[in-house]
Sequence to fold (449 residues):
Amino acid sequence: MLTFGTGNKAVAMAVRDAKPVVVAAYPITPQTEIVEELANFVTAGSMAARYIPVESEHSSMAACIGAAATGVRTFTATSSHGLVYMCEMLHMSAGARLPIVMANANRALGPGWNIGAEHSDSISMRDTGWLQVYVSTVQEAYDATLMAFRIAEHTDVLLPVMINLDGFLLTHITQTFETVEPGDFLPPTATPHAIDIKNPGGYGTLTPGNTHFTFRRDMERGMRASIAVIEETEADFARRFGREYHLYEEYRCEDADVVIIAMGTLGKEMEVAVDILRDEGIAAGAIRMRWFRPFIVPDLDGKEVVVIDRDYSFGYGGVLAGELQAKSGCKPFSVIAGLGGQEVTYDDIVEFVRIRKPGTEHWFGVVD
Amino acid sequence: MSAKLAISRPGEGAAGKTGTWRTFRPVVDRVKCNDCGLCRLYCPDAAISVDLEIDLEYCKGCGICAEECPKKAIIMERDED
Fold:
């Protein structure tokens, strides 16, 4: 059905269409609309889920863990301080191999207090064992949320998935989008280690040094297997519903000498910048990284690389630039831009390409 | 498929049948007992069933059930075995 709404509303409608059994959530700007919409759906009877209002984000993830451990589909949403508050439970949910799906509205962390878009919240959860996908349009927010359930619940994966959408820049903008009837695109959950009350046991019990690593190794097996599952899910989604997604999205890259790489809404903005640069005679291209975990390295051989990070690892550098450099051997021009919702236009991105110096770092708007 | 999660199932303790450790055994006066089940909840070895039968193969004779019983229906008697 063709409709229109905000990124938040699209996520909520995708969750409704995925028919989870339990939604446990706590409101936080700029994600609140997602859980408000879900509460509305439950109250109005258009969604049969049990909605659990909780006292904190730590508790919302704990409630999802309890529900998912029984083998049912679960969802929550958070942002920024809420996400880092549930950090312990992110490790617990991934470690327990529970296919929980969560939307995170990317937002800066204080102080100074800030509710603008920034990726530092989700990127600081990098090593929890959660898959992370970054979306750039309202339609993609809907589609990626629906696909997240299938990817997380696949028995080759069994890891939780976080859908990241830029706070305000995507959560609060309105676009048209199309909803679908998922049908058997989303098979019923079949968690092999779901709690069986007829065969009681202790779950996640003590694992000493001679066994603990075997479970950690299996998490990495799930993470590596997820790449094929993502591709297969995206291909089936395209076949059924006509919208194509890839591990990363390339724009005019075939003959490009310089590629701009970013995640989230900036990754869409830079397509306009590429067109302007092409008109100037610069053979530019763009790669929008969708999946941050698993990390999938594009082929950057022979290309100059400009990476825009809406995040920073203090004492190290832009995280996306650093990881691309480590995995591909490229020497990116690392631009730190858009922190705390700082406005970055396509003209600004054009300028990043014009002033590029491979192997150096540039903070947009900062005069040292 | 390799194991996804460490799951332990109930089984016999590593120490075997700990009833042999016992010096005093609990004896229940069924007339005084009102079936409240506190003895079962407090038993640190889960040696008391939902039907309030005490499993003497595992009961170590700690006496917590007798201490907690609000009806004083359990007394500890020296184990002669």
